[in-house]
Write a structure and sequence with these properties.
102 residues, alpha+beta, 3 helices, Ada metal-binding domain-containing protein, activator, Ada-like_dom_sf, Ada_DNA_repair_Zn-bd
Length: 102
Amino acid sequence: MTAPVPPPGDGPERRLHTLVGRDGLPYRSLSSGTVGGHRRTRVYGRLDCPSALRAIAGGHCVTHRVFFADEATAVEAGYRPCAVCLPTEYARWKAARRAARP
């Protein structure tokens, strides 16, 4: 008896990734996303962020790691930019937050 042949497009190139949407809820996507975040701290940054990579290498943050299609989605989901890998975006976020205080 031969093994069943998977339908076209079901190989590793069709791997689904779990991303977080604008509503903060997870969804499945063919794209792996362009930014990563930390669910508890609500911070997002580049996938090559030195701070995040150090934490992950130390065995931290992995269970709370989330991914977003882009920065706009991360912001709309309630995450703020990382001060380490996105200093310009972080400064903009910080200034807007100060201006919003009464």
